[in-house]
Structure formats: structure tokens, C-alpha cells
């Protein structure tokens, strides 16, 4: 268990009631399970009331049980295996309607992203991107879908965008061999974090590039070497990675960059529309409704 949480519990142990001691012991032995329990479920599990659980959280320095729970979730964010994530997801959904559960889960992570993302970092990142000679986008595994989406639109706005893709670190560095202070590097990674993306971000930082990370916490390994960290929550206790909040953040990034380059973007999109019409890229749908 995380040393800070352990210290908080141990420092208050002498003053705990009998029920609070049972809570402390259960958390120390089962914090990975408690991280996804409600206060009432934890209370029922150890034989105390929900209010006792809430008072326990406040006693060890948290504003309430949700903050204690979030602290435990942060501890295991990068440790859950795929099998553990399946078990946790199944337990959390229980008898609930799966569709409603997933929608509400995604609504919650977007709300938390709105509360936690730095507006200052966001606008500084936009400035860094629009003033760069070349833009490198780094993403792997499930986050590659986000990188592909971002590069698709950035390629319509900029002349020099590279989505770095490779199965080996050596090939990544080969694609980034010319990166320097004139460039921007955008890294995207969520638990479980990609080691090669973290190393590539460090390489870009050492070369003086403007480094931007899109990740879930300032403790993320890709945040360490970033000039600007854009936080987007992802649900760690899900069978699949919930990418709705990161995608919303990337949408905002694309929109703001487009606004900042509005004159150039307008000309580009006018030309693209002509090309799409000429070559029949899109199927035309006649509106026959009256």
C-alpha cells in the first residue's frame, strides 16, 4: 500500500475506535478492493456503519470518503492486470444496466476532466503547437486511436505532422532524429503506460523540443519530461480503456488550433471541399423529406 496512506493510518491508530481499527486493518490488507467499494459496502464488509467509514476517512486527513477512495485508486492505477480489470468491472456493474452504467461512467470522467485540466497549460500548448516547425505525435496501444485521430486533423492544418509509429524504441528514435527546439512533441499515454512513449518523451525533452503530454495524472511517466501537461481522466476499472475524456480534450485542442489558424484553415477546407466534390470522396445524400 502507498506509504503516504499507510503513514496517515498509522499516525492515527492509537486514537481509533474499535470499528475504525477494523476499517484500517481491512484497507491495509485489501486496498485494491476497497478502492472500488462504496462507503456503505465497506462498512457492511467490516461490520460498521457508513457514517463510521466517512468519519474514518476524515480522521486520517481526507475531506470525505470519496477523496480516500480516489487516493486508493491512484495507487493502483498502473497495476491492475487485464484479468483484474474484468473482475472489478463485473463487480461494479453488478445487476445494473450495462449501457446506463457505461454512459454514467463516461459522464463522470468528462466532468472530472473539466475540473482538473489546467486551462493555462491548454492555451500554452496551443501556442507551442501553432508556432512549431514540425509536430510529432506519440501514441501506442489503445491510445494509438487518439493519436491517429489527432494526426488526421492536424495534417489538414499543418504541412509537417508525423504520427510516430513503431514496434521498437530504436525505430522511434530514428523517426525523431531531427527533433529540436523548433518542434512540438505531443505524447498520449494512459494506464498501463507505454514505456517506449515515456522514453521518447524524455528524448524530445533533452533535444529541447516543446513537449506536451496528454495523460491522466501529473505522476504519469510521460508527464515528467513535459512542458505542458493536459490531464484527462480515464476509468481505470474497466475492461476497456475509457477514452471519451481524452478524446474530448483532443477535440478542444483541434478546435482551438483551428481557430488560431482560422485564415489558413478556411482556405485549406475550401480546397478540400472542392477536391472531395471533384473526386466523389463522400456519398451525397439527397434530403427528400418535406
Features:
alpha/beta; Rossmann fold; 13 helices; five-stranded parallel β-sheet; Arc Repressor Mutant, subunit A; 290 residues
Layout of helices and strands, plus pairs?
Elements: H1 3-12, H2 18-34, H3 39-46, H4 50-59, H5 65-76, H6 82-93, H7 98-116, H8 119-130, E1 135-139, H9 144-157, E2 161-164, H10 169-175, E3 184-188, H11 195-206, E4 210-215, E5 228-231, H12 244-260, H13 262-278
Helix pairs in contact: 3-4, 7-12, 8-12, 9-12
Q: What is the CATH C level class of the largest domain, in words?
A: Alpha Beta
Low-confidence blocks of residues: none
Structural class designation: alpha/beta
Task: Indicate the CATH topology of the largest domain.
Answer: Rossmann fold
Number of helices: 13
The CATH level-2 architecture of the largest domain is identified as: 3-Layer(aba) Sandwich
The amount of helix comes to: 55-70%
Give the strand order of the largest sheet, numbering strands 1, 2, ... along the chain: 2-1-3-4-5
Mean pLDDT: 86
Q: Give the N-terminus to C-terminus distance in angstroms.
A: 65 Å
Report the major sheet: 5 strands, parallel
Shape: elongated
What's the structural domain tally?
2
Task: Report the sheet-strand fraction.
Answer: 5-15%
Query: Would you identify the CATH H-level superfamily of the largest domain?
Result: Glucose-6-phosphate isomerase like protein, domain 1
DSSP summary, beta strand count: 5
Rg result: 23 Å
